[in-house]
Amino acid sequence: MPRRLMAILVLALLLAAVPTAAQAKGATAANISGGGPGGLPGGPIDITGDGEPGSGTGLANLAEAAGMWALLFEDGQPGNLASAPASPRRGPRYTITWTFPNGAGTEDKVRQSVWPYAAGGPITYLAPGQKVLDTTTEGGWFRAADNLRQSLISAGLPDRPALTAPAPAPAAPAPATPAPPPSPAIWPWVAAGIGLLVLAAAVAVARRRSPGGVGAS
Prior knowledge:
Elements (H helix, E strand, L loop, with lengths): L2 H15 L9 E8 L10 E7 L6 H8 L2 H5 L7 E2 L12 E8 L5 E9 L7 E4 L4 E2 L2 E2 L3 E4 L2 H10 L31 H23 L8
Antiparallel strand pairs: 1-2, 1-4, 3-9, 4-5, 5-6, 6-9, 7-8
């Protein structure tokens, strides 16, 4: 085989063995912004590197902690939520903009909302319909572990503890059972009956003693 053809064949095999940006699933960058009026004190935070799932890099670990892989590729994994959590205390919201190389030689930007200090654990939300890797996101909510808050603090977010859930409202006391209506008093009727008997007896005695009355001589 000619040397030129052999070199071309070896080069083709080497290129096929190396994952290209179009074949990779991982992000190549993440931009963290937001946090309320004025945003982050030092401005948006940029993280770059190899974000391939399982690579163990800071970017890949951040994406895994934020639930990106669970929401994009592992539907139904622990942490996925069917609807927005009812936690009334979420704290400031941040936006992570992930950069994914696509097969067209350009980049897809996927935005994810993050509440790192939420009571009960960090919460993330991925909006549906975002273009990424020749498809679109289905979206969803994700309840992350506290390591997401710690990772974001290490990246430059304010060092704050997680919020505490509000104390449950005390249970309302059971309504008191209404007392039965008082029974009508009997003694007034008894007294009235006795009075009538006494009156009748007195009248009878008076008739007997009066002249011409019953029993008079």
